[in-house]
Amino acid sequence: MSTKLLICDDSNMARKQLARSLPDGWDVEVSFATNGIEGIEAIKENKGDVLLLDLNMPKMDGYQVLEAILAQDLPTLTIVVSGDIQPEAHKKVIGLGALAFIQKPVNKDKLTEVLLSYGLFTKDEQQNDLQDISDRIPTASKPELTKSGNKQLSSPQANTSFTPTLSDELTLAPSLRDCYQEIANVAMGRAGDLLARLLDVFVKLPIPNVNFIEVSELRMALGDVESNESTSGVCQGFISAGISGEALLILNDSSFKDVASLMNYQYNEDEGTELELLMDLSNVLIGACLKGISEQLDINFSQGHPVVLGQHRKISELIANNVNKWKKTLAIEISYSIESYEIKCDLLLLFTEQSMRTLNNKLTYLLE
Fold first, then answer.
1. For the CA atoms of the chain, what is the radius of gyration?
2. How far is 343 from 254, CA to CA, in rounded Å?
3. Do 319 and 181 fall within a single domain?
4. If residue 108 lies in a helix (H) or strand (E), which one and from where to where?
């Protein structure tokens, strides 16, 4: 009898990557859910003997799904697959009943190892599949056969191919936005993990906001970030083959005192101390986030020297000098906050319009 497997992740790209990473030879019927609410309903419909669960999702996140499974005693075995790799995240999901935690992007060998360790996939199935492959090696007198495997996909999403198209007029189609968002999600998790370890806290990670907009519209895009409170910011340029842009780190001024305490700084209310804190945070978050993107897309970024945008000013004032450098930008916004502290900082990755052509090609190669 086939194992009913449910993949619950808001990213279509992530769902496909997970489906492709399942062990060969595993007799499994795969279903998909795009958020926690759909996931719980699918489990109740007996579609989830095994659940591969993301954490950062809209409507109902992975933590809430695990809590609901416990509260309602739902029959499923859960493995968390997430870009949020903080030690505290790992502890939380295991405490809520997950069997294991695997970081994104998922490694097929690691997933197979975890499934084998819990008896969800057996070495006999693995061996049978290897025998199946050897039995079907083509000979000169026999046409080559293609291995289809035993996976049955109950959702049409699994068979949908993704091929970003390039045209003279670049746009951000929903499929492309999803890919950029998932790449940013994994990179955000790397940076959040470093920040969590540095400050010994739990960092609350959002769903990254991705837009392709006129640079002049950047102020409006930051409407959710803008507040009556003053902010301080740092800008750092980055470049790779065919890709260039700027990273902006913006910290609410009210956060400085708590950040100083967590970083064991002797805090004085002067701009020199605050600037040092701001530079330290930017080195951690910007560097780790760019590294996370470069590892996924197999590129190397060179980073320029950080430049202070300003201190104790509105966000719109901080970015005023940057809005005329190019016409359009691929803007990725990540808002980090710290559990139990009034600390909030925003990381903006701004890629030039021309960079999107290279990035789109990278995504096409990644998903082939």
1. 23
2. 7
3. yes
4. helix 108-117
Within-domain flag for 164: no
Question: Are residues 298 and 205 located together in one domain of the fold?
Answer: yes
Question: What tens digit of pLDDT does each residue of 89-126 get?
Answer: 999 999 999 999 999 999 999 999 999 999 998 877 66
> Residue 351: which residues within 8 A CB-CB, separation 6 or more?
243, 244, 245, 329, 330, 331, 332, 359
Examine the domain organization and report whether 352 and 259 are in the same domain: yes
166 occurs within a structural domain? no
Which of 207, 184, 151, 161 has its CA nearest to residue 7?
A: 151
Both 183 and 119 in one domain: the answer is no
CB 133 within 8 A of CB 9: no
Task: For residue 110, count other CB atoms closer than 10 A to its CB.
Answer: 14
Instruction: Quote the pTM value.
Output: 0.85
Can you give the residue range of the structural domain that contains 67? 3-159
Q: Is there a single domain that holds both residue 113 and residue 181?
A: no
User: For residue 300, what are the CA distances in angstroms to 200, 240, 242, 295, 346?
Assistant: 29, 6, 11, 8, 23
Structure tokens at 180: 């950029």
Q: Is 264 helix (H, G, I), strand (E, B) or coil?
A: coil
* Residue indicated by tokens 């320029």: 304
